[in-house]
Structure formats: C-alpha cells, structure tokens
C-alpha cells in the first residue's frame, strides 16, 4: 500500500472530517487526496497554533479534527496544545512529517527531529512512529481512539525515510 494512501485511508476510517494543514512537501500527496475529498473540510494555515485554534472551534462545532504539519511546528504550538486542547479535553489527531531523523538532508532539521519525541513525552502526549504504510493506517486508528479516550492530542510521526 502506498504510504500516503495509507495515511489518507486511516483518516477516512476514523471519520476525520476537518483537517488543518501547514504546507509540507513530505505531506503533499496526502494533502492532494484530502483536497479532492468533498467529505473533508481542509483549511490550510500559515502557523501551527492558528491551526490548533481552528481545530478547537471545529471540534466544538461537532467535527472530528486533525492537523497535518512538520514536527518543526510542534515548538510553535506547545502553548495552544497545552492550554487549549488539553485543558478542555479536546481530542486532536496530529499527523507530523518527522523531519531531522535518519536520512535527513538538511542539517538544520536535525535538532528538532531529535527532540520531537522527548517534547511530546514532556507534554504527556502519546505518539506513534509507523515504519510501514500498514502500520500508519493502524496507528492512525489507535491514535484517534487514544485521543478520544484521553481527551488530548495524540501524534503519528511520519519519518521521511519511510515516506
């Protein structure tokens, strides 16, 4: 199964119907599929914390929400994630292009790439790191269920060497 299709199918399987995204070349195939889907509202944004706010509003309006972004945007959105989504127990599926891992061609991505799992752990947010497309599909289902149960964001980190 194509990895982008696996992620898209996972989003569809759990009923995600509102997606915010920050531009990312590694997620572009997934974003193209989302744009072609009339059942999903897709709102591109320029900053991650803006996206978190839009997801919160959409969730309160009855939508099942996700944000697609690079892991570099995690640092930009920490306050919104903790003081908005976690405080008010809002589920949020975070699909992140995990830059700065093995095979990364841009050295400036490495520090945040190495820190991303530790930042999520420090925030007490669970995450999944699929190594195959089949795992991504299953991890998205598990992440959404966990996000609903815990009432806080759960991430799926897509390392660029697999995608």
In short:
With 163 residues, the protein is of the alpha/beta class.
Explain this structure.
With 163 residues, the chain is α/β, with parallel strands linked by helices. Helices cover 47% and strands 18% of the residues. It has a single domain, classed as Thiamin diphosphate (ThDP)-binding fold, Pyr/PP domains (Rossmann fold). It has 6 helices and 6 strands. A 6-stranded parallel beta sheet has the order 2-1-3-4-6-5, sandwiched between helices. The longest helix has 18 residues. The protein is globular. It starts with a helix and ends with a strand. The model has no long low-confidence stretch (mean pLDDT 93).
């Amino acid at each position: 199964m194509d990895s982008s299709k696996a992620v898209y199918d996972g989003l569809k399987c759990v009923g995600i119907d509102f997606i915010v995204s920050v531009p990312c070349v590694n997620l572009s195939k997934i974003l193209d599929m989302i744009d072609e889907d009339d059942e999903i509202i897709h709102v591109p944004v320029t900053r991650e914390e803006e996206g978190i706010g839009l997801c919160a509003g959409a969730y309160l309006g009855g939508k099942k929400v996700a944000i697609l972004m690079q892991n570099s945007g995690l640092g930009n959105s920490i306050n919104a994630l903790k003081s908005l989504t976690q405080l008010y127990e809002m589920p949020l599926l975070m699909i992140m292009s995990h830059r700065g891992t093995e095979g990364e061609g841009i050295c400036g991505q490495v520090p945040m790439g190495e820190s991303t799992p530790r930042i999520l752990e420090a925030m007490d947010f669970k995450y999944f790191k699929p190594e195959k497309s089949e795992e991504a599909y299953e991890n998205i289902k598990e992440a959404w269920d966990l996000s609903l149960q815990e009432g806080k964001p759960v991430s799926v980190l897509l390392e660029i060497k697999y995608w």
